[in-house]
Amino acid sequence: MNGSRPMRYGKKSRNGRLERLALLRRVFPSIDAHVAQRPARVGADDLLDAAAAAWTAIRRWKGIAGQVCDPEQDERGLLATIHY
Prior knowledge:
By secondary structure, the chain is mainly α. The chain has one domain (14-80). The protein has helices at residues 14-27, 31-36, 44-62; strands spanning 72-73, 79-80. A two-stranded antiparallel sheet has the order 1-2. It is globular, with a radius of gyration of 15 Å. The chain starts with 13 loop residues before the first helix and ends with a strand.
């Protein structure tokens, strides 16, 4: 989402929230409304994390997601890795 570059600011800071919103607007044009209308118990950073996870799920479904490392097997033999 950010050209494989790390974010400049922490997600809990104002600049970090604005940085993430700018990227997420490209995929989810209504993201600002969702942040504004979120339940009081849901932090803005949590909603943005969920939106980023949804972006990754869409990319995974389309077969275009990258992954951080080769999958590893857990104790049950399930493969696990981090996608983006």
